[in-house]
Amino acid sequence: MAAPHTPIDSRLLPWNYSKHYLLAGSAFLAIILFFISFSAHRHLNTTAPAAAAATGSRFSISSASACTPRDPQVIVYNRIPKAGSTTLISLLSHLAGKNNFTLVLPTPYYSHPAARNAVLTALTTGTRTVICNHFNFPEILYGGSIDASNINRNTQQVAYINVMRNPVDRCASFYYYTRYGDRNKQLKKNTIDQYGNFTLDECVNKPYDEIKTCFNCKSDTQALAFCGREGGDCGRATADEILAQAWENVQAHYFVGITEDLHGTAEMLELLYPSFFRGMTEAMEVTAPKKVSSSREQYIAPSEKARMVMEKWAAVDMDLYTKVHARYIEQRKACF
User: How many CA atoms lie within 13 Å of 274's alpha carbon, on the beta-carbon side?
Assistant: First the structure.
């Protein structure tokens, strides 16, 4: 026989506890939820700035490191063609004696072993040195028969600087310089024989696939100056890889100024490396910028239509320049 059913006293059910206990439980639960919410909100507020700093540019407006003076043993300036480097070399020559440093111009151009050897020699002898010429950043650190490990171990003693120029303006200057600038006559003749004697507009207004027959400015010259990976250069990298690696190297290693604001660039160099560049802005007041092509009668500025075509052509350099320009402006605002 089944056991007799025993009725359940409804007063013992949870939902029929006295009003006093229900109110106490609700209050306790509310307190717990408040502290959980407060803790989560506090955690977000304390971690968000760190996350922003980790994902933002190397020099944020709130970062004191953007304006902190440094005193390296060696400064490397792997100058970019047609980006104001002739003016800066003139200024460096003027400052070398006054500020007691040696200006070294390794030759020939893009001789990475020569540049690497110059850095190692300066580190070994303890000579304050600015090393300046056309060479790409990574090749002075890796490769070749010279052990460059000392350069990597002396990261506080080696600083890197450069100057970028709007790629359209740089290409226009390069286009006319290689044909009519202050260079070897035979080299100018060779350029005209190979690429033709067109105005810039005549060249870039050709069908897009034919532009390369007359336009001798590469799309990634400036990006390649900063690109490079351990063990080799970026010669076989895709455009996206070149841009990504160049931007990574800029943020990790460089102060990069802007040709369009050489005076401001000089102010930043004086601030960051005073023992080398003290008096640079003053020297600029009496040193006219060196223009080696745009003052010539053959130079005809590109039309707006031509500029749009050139922006597309130099897409890699345009992307990097946009990032570098924004970074430079951000750093200037933080320091002045």
Answer: 4
pLDDT attached to residue 98: 95
d(CA 106, CA 134): 9
Q: Assess whether pLDDT exceeds 90 at residue 66.
A: no
The structure tokens listed for 103 are 């200006």
Q: Strand 102-104 relative to strand 158-164: parallel, antiparallel, unpaired?
A: unpaired
CA–CA separation, 295 and 182 (whole Å): 11
Judge whether 57 lies within some domain. no
Buried-exposed string 109-123: b where 16+ CB fall within 10 A, e elsewhere = eebbbbbbbbbbebb
**Could you tell me the two tokens for 131?**
């090393």
**Contact at 8 Å (CB) between 313 and 211?**
yes
Contact 92, 103 (CB under 8 A): yes
Omega of the bond prior to 274 within 30 degrees of 0, cis? no
Most confident of 77-81, 150-154, 221-225, 326-330: 326-330
Q: For the chain, what is the domain count?
A: 1
- 151-198: pLDDT as tens digits: 555 567 889 999 999 999 999 999 999 999 888 999 999 999 999 999
C-alpha–C-alpha distance, residues 247 and 253, integer Å: 10
In a domain, 294, yes or no: yes
Determine contact, residues 70/272, Cβ cutoff 8 Å. Answer: yes
- Its domain, for residue 237, covers 68-335
Residue 10 domain flag? no
CATH number (domain holding residue 314): 3.40.50.300
Residue 147 lies in a domain: yes
d(CA 117, CA 79) in angstroms, rounded, equals 17
